[in-house]
Amino acid sequence: MPEGPSIVILKEKISYLKNKIVSEASGYAEIDMEELSHKKIIDFKSWGKHFFICFSDFTIRIHFGLFGSYQFHEPKKVNPKLALHFNNDDVYFYVCTIERLDGTLDEMYDFSTDVMSDEWDDAQALKKLKDLPDSQIADVLLDQKIFSGVGNIIKNEVLYRAEVHPESLAGKIPLARLKTIIKEARDYSFDFLKWKKADQLKKNFEVYTRKETRSTGKPVTKKDTGKSKRSSYFSASEQKLYK
């Protein structure tokens, strides 16, 4: 599943189509394709793992889920969920959830929870963390209402940087460590963005999908953790368990 930084990359890649007029829309998404045809794209935005194509009076929301993808210029050999055609270009979206939204995004989304946003509010994240004292920190980091854009890669790498075990209870983690986790959620997201653009993301993983930590060579444990049962990768000797 694409995490927040990957959606930011899509937003940057597709920005050349801003203010272009869609000559035709096609695909099997359950939206009115005629409504998109002959409409000018006003903007492209993102919130966490959500990508938005903004028109003057409505917005198309795209969520890529586990297997979604996109492609410019030429289609794949499978049918797109949505294809936008322009006079001399095309963009295709595959295996994703597509919905029409009415109203303004600021009314529907809290951009201060997006770790990639200029509006990110770390104090608000800390307050919400304190409201979940009995939750495992691995679950809390994946809560999109607190850390929108954080996915499983970022979760694992952030907890390694903060030296906190993924099964630690949020209410037992010292305040200084909580603040470190919040800071690293944003800092690592921008490192992710930088490395992804340079095609160096995997080589910089400290624990994710590894058997030994990249920096110290310590054994990495893989375990499904929390209510979400998502895979956690951690160094038991370097990440403290707070329970």
TrEMBL record:
GO terms for molecular function: damaged DNA binding; DNA-(apurinic or apyrimidinic site) endonuclease activity; lyase activity; oxidized purine nucleobase lesion DNA N-glycosylase activity; zinc ion binding. PROSITE patterns: FPG_CAT (PS51068). It catalyses: Hydrolysis of DNA containing ring-opened 7-methylguanine residues, releasing 2,6-diamino-4-hydroxy-5-(N-methyl)formamidopyrimidine. SMART domains: Fapy_DNA_glyco (SM00898), H2TH (SM01232). Residues 2-93 form the Formamidopyrimidine-DNA glycosylase catalytic domain. It comes from the Bacteria. Pfam families: Fapy_DNA_glyco, H2TH. Transmembrane segments: none annotated. Residues 212-243 are annotated as: Disordered. The keyword Iron does not apply. One of its GO terms (biological process) is base-excision repair. Residues 212-227 have a biased composition (Basic and acidic residues). Keywords: DNA damage, DNA repair, DNA-binding, Endonuclease, Glycosidase, Hydrolase, Lyase, Multifunctional enzyme, Nuclease. Residues 231-243 have a biased composition (Polar residues). SUPFAM superfamilies: N-terminal domain of MutM-like DNA repair proteins, S13-like H2TH domain. Belongs to the FPG family. PANTHER family: FORMAMIDOPYRIMIDINE-DNA GLYCOSYLASE. This is Endonuclease-8. It comes from Pedobacter westerhofensis.
